[in-house]
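User: Hey, my collaborator sent me this sequence without any context and asked if I could get a structure. I don't really work with proteins. Can you help?
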Amino acid sequence: MEYTFKVRNNWWLNAGLAGLYLIAVKDALRDKREELNIEVVPKSIGLTFQAENIDDLRSFLGECYEHLAGMYWNISSASQREKQELVIYDREKDELKTAPRRMPIPPIQKVLSARSWKAEGEKYENLPESLKKRVDEFLSQTNKKLWGKDEKLLYEPPICHDTEIKILPKEKSKKKTYTCCICGQEHTEVYDIAQPIYFLFASASASRSFHSQARKLDAVCWECNFLSKFAYECIHYKTDNDTMIIISPNSPNLKHLLKLQDKLGCRSALRAFDDQYFLKNIGVNKDELLYYANKPYELLWAFYFDAYDLLKRQYDLKNENVNSNINSFLQELIGDILGAPTEVVLLFLETKGQTFITKDLIIYQDTAYMFRLFSALMEKDVNLKQVFEDLYDTMESKIENRALKRNEILKKVLNKHPILQDMEEFCFSKIVSNNGFLRMRNMLLFIMNYQLIIRGDSMTKEQIEAAVNLGKQIVLQAKQKLNNDEFKKIKGDLFKLRKTRTATDFLNQLNNLQFRYGISVSKPIQEGLINDVNFEDFRAYCILGALNVYNGIMTDSKKGDVKDGEN
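Assistant: No problem. I've predicted the 3D structure and written it out in structure-token form, which is a compact way to encode the shape of the chain:
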């Protein structure tokens, strides 16, 4: 017989479908597969299981679920393993021993209550007197306590996964059927909607409060409930204080989704468990940008960059003896990723009291654009890691706010929006305040090339260079006219220049600087270039060019090596 779990129109359930496949084909379950003669066949439309009969398939799917629970529900952190706080009575050996407490991974903790924990054991008050005496002595020697408010002596460590989950239940013909609110199929065996099934559902109590007329809640079929558990095999997650970010690639084509797991998902080298405290499974390595990203859009950007960097290194290693270039790599990469519709889903959650709220849900579908952008910028010698690092705003007094500007700017990059004005404001504030390190030459290179790639302004490459060179000339001439102590006065001149609101005001201020420092203006500007382009863009490029040289001079002077250069 065959049974097929079809692809859903839901990213969480699709992650669960991919997760079910990855668990089912694991070596740990090979003996069970062979014993029951189970075949697992991924297809574009869904996942097909072939078995001798439905009982064998039910047994195998149960084994898959128990294996999953042991990986993500019933685990122990490093401190729990060290403390060994549980007291267990081994009935076979008739001995008392200690064991570590357990906890699920953080995403599951969000949707699990204390009532989910269960364990086989006996209340202390019901124990035989002889065993009570042994327990008392053991507790005194180890300084431990019995489990829970009921003070249970446990026979095995507690578990928190659903041990009564429905798997291939027998449909009862006389029982009322319900339509699943996720997949649309009709079933007699269903669950009420609840957060353990999907994060964006309200909790059961909240859902009931919404139904003031006491109508029955929407139903979820056993298939969707079962698949939802396996999503934890595929999703990436990262926690930071009261926030959590979940990120997962998605596709309506299961075979392509499994390929994405190799490139961007759980089978890529991006996945690395924090096996001490399980606070994250990406961004564990300090060499990755994901380690430093905590806001939604900066993490999405870092996710794409780290994936691109990883895949490029793997490609170079594979083709080290073959003549290859960036174009061949990009063609192969995008060909793999765009083989079917592809998106990356990011969920940003924040803890509020005993529950959580969804702060952001991003469904990003421009993966090819991001990889092409990275490739184009790197060809222009833009160091993207430095760009990411320098967008960290050390001027903010609160640490949690220092990445806000970076998140805002990278959001615009992800959505192909212009960033010139934002970057000019950020760079001017950071450099002039002397309150933050900035590699301005690399930042200017990034801004100029990005704006040209997305056509973010109406200026050509030559016009941009004319504006940038004008800014450089202003600072270089000031450096020649002023001594070291007076040089900082140029900050006031730049401030006045960037505060001009019209081309006429700008030219008047420029004329003052010409008389003061003897600046020579290029021919295109003399011929009225400033009137042929967007004035605000021209002014921004001019200020950025000036900041580039000013930053270089000030950085070199701090090192005791004064020269006219860029940084």
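In plain terms: The chain has a mean pLDDT of 90. You can pass these tokens on to your collaborator as they are.
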